[in-house]
Write a structure and sequence with these properties.
Elements lengths: L2 H14 L2 H5 L10 H9 L5 E6 L5 E5 L5 H7 L14 E5 L4 H10 L9 E7 L4 E7 L4 H13 L7 E11 L2 E3 L13 E2 L7 E3 L2 E4 L6 E5 L2 E5 L2 E6 L14 E3 L7 E7 L4 E2 L5 E3 L4 E5 L5 E7 L12 E2 L5 E7 L8 E6 L3 E15 L5 E9 L11 E5 L4 E14 L2 E8 H8 L6
Length: 428
């Protein structure tokens, strides 16, 4: 059998098993995701192909017929649309496909996530294409299988764009450090210090031996039912998707134990040889209610795109969480605070993206990508919208980082998807 026919045969088998992806999705998948929200919005706009925000703040909309601009203004009248320096807040472009059609093709193509070299899959509202993330220098045989899969999925080649990058990796870190109690120097503290009560964005340690600990970031404090705790990544536990009662200290063991993992939902089968979840999140119960700092995220002194400060001055500097933020659009600026790269910010570069985790059989569904700095130890960082001052709107939880088109990108699970898996959470 020729290599081409063998590739075609393997792809047919892959798509024959595609029903597994849909058939095994648990009830949590019934919530309306970001793609569904955009489809619903677009139904009031004839030929809607997606929309995004540019660096100047103007809103761009793809339409099959951009001359029908009146329907756009009516449908988008309730959206915040900052005016760009040229005085325009809305720009229309001729698109080739409706966004609803792109989402249908994306969902048809989910089996390609089982192919080697495939990093992600997205109905890309900024490009009016289905975008597939692939590794740099993808092996010819792997590219041939991918092309065969696109043909088998009956997706026109001109509807697909590729982004080359590096695999997405979870971002825990192994360290050997001593805790510093911020109370000894009340005018200054860092995100790795011991602080009580514990705000989001601080270092937490687990899995410690005599010489080292794994460290991640405390995402945000929440009340689940009547239980006060914090949310961090599932991979920042002893075992992903399993409640193993992992114990956490903050910032290191000498700083004292602060909580125990009590909720970490299992993964579900989602295609050939893969497991899925909608969020990389686990819930940790605080040992004492006095440890929790509800609606507070540590606020470093300054920020940056790749690296921001981890220094807080005064040590009590905090963001105040006013609630959950709206679903971000591609191009919106989001912020995060993590124990390693501190307070970083950057534009959203993908919404509702299927993202696979390097070195595992795990894919996270409908994640958001942001072009901004994140590194080892930033796993669990709170992601939020911020318009200045002390108030922030919580968006979700950072879990991993990768690279697309030569730029650092991190992925996060939205607050809505976290709550679909962990249950309702009170965050303020």
């Amino acid at each position: 059998m020729s290599k081409r026919r063998l590739a075609a045969f393997s792809v047919i088998a892959l798509f024959a098993a595609a029903s597994t992806w849909a058939a095994t999705v648990p009830p949590a998948a019934t919530f309306r995701d970001a793609d569904d929200e955009l489809i619903a919005l677009g139904r009031g706009i004839p030929g809607f192909g997606g929309m995004f925000v540019d660096a100047e703040g103007a809103l761009h909309v793809w339409m099959l017929d951009p001359d029908a601009g009146g329907a756009v203004e009516k449908a988008l009248s309730g959206l915040a649309r900052p005016t760009d320096p040229a005085g325009e807040s809305l720009r229309l472009h001729r698109g080739d496909f409706t966004f609803e059609r792109l989402v249908a093709w994306k969902r048809t193509l989910t089996p390609v996530l089982s192919l080697p070299g495939v990093l992600s899959l997205d109905a890309d509202e900024a490009r009016n294409r289905v975008t597939i993330g692939i590794v740099h220098d993808m092996a010819p045989a792997d590219r041939e299988r991918l092309e065969a899969a696109l043909a088998a999925g009956d997706v026109p080649s001109r509807a697909v764009a590729f982004r080359e990058g590096e695999p997405f990796k979870a971002l825990p870190l192994a360290v050997n450090a001593n805790a510093i109690d911020a109370k000894a120097s009340p005018s200054i503290a860092t995100l790795t210090d011991k602080i009580r009560p514990v705000p989001g964005g601080m270092q937490v340690a687990f899995g410690c031996s005599n010489i080292a600990c794994f460290v991640c970031t405390d995402g945000f404090t929440a009340i689940r039912g009547k239980t006060l705790g914090f949310v961090t990544n599932s991979h920042c536990t002893g075992e992903r998707g399993t409640v193993d009662s992992t114990r956490y200290s903050q910032s290191t063991p000498s700083g004292g134990i602060v909580g125990t993992e009590i909720v970490d939902p299992p993964h579900f089968a989602c295609g050939v040889g893969r497991r899925c979840r909608f969020s990389d999140a686990a819930f940790v119960k605080f040992d004492k209610k006095s440890f929790g700092s509800l609606a507070r995220i540590a606020k470093p002194f300054n920020n940056g795109t790749d690296f921001g400060l981890t220094l807080m001055t005064p040590a009590t500097s905090r963001f105040v969480v006013s609630g959950a933020g709206p679903s971000p659009r591609t191009g919106d600026i989001l912020h995060k605070v993590g124990r390693t790269t501190g307070w970083t910010y950057g534009p959203v570069t993908g919404t509702c993206v299927e993202v696979s985790v390097s070195g595992t059989d795990i894919t996270y569904s409908c994640q958001t990508l942001v072009t901004a700095g994140a590194d080892g130890g930033d796993s669990g960082s709170p992601v939020f919208s911020w318009g200045g001052g002390k108030t922030a709107q919580l968006q979700g939880l950072l879990w991993g980082g990768g690279d697309f088109d030569g730029q650092r990108v991190y992925a996060f699970s939205s607050l809505g998807q976290i709550q679909q898996e962990l249950g309702a959470l009170k965050i303020k």
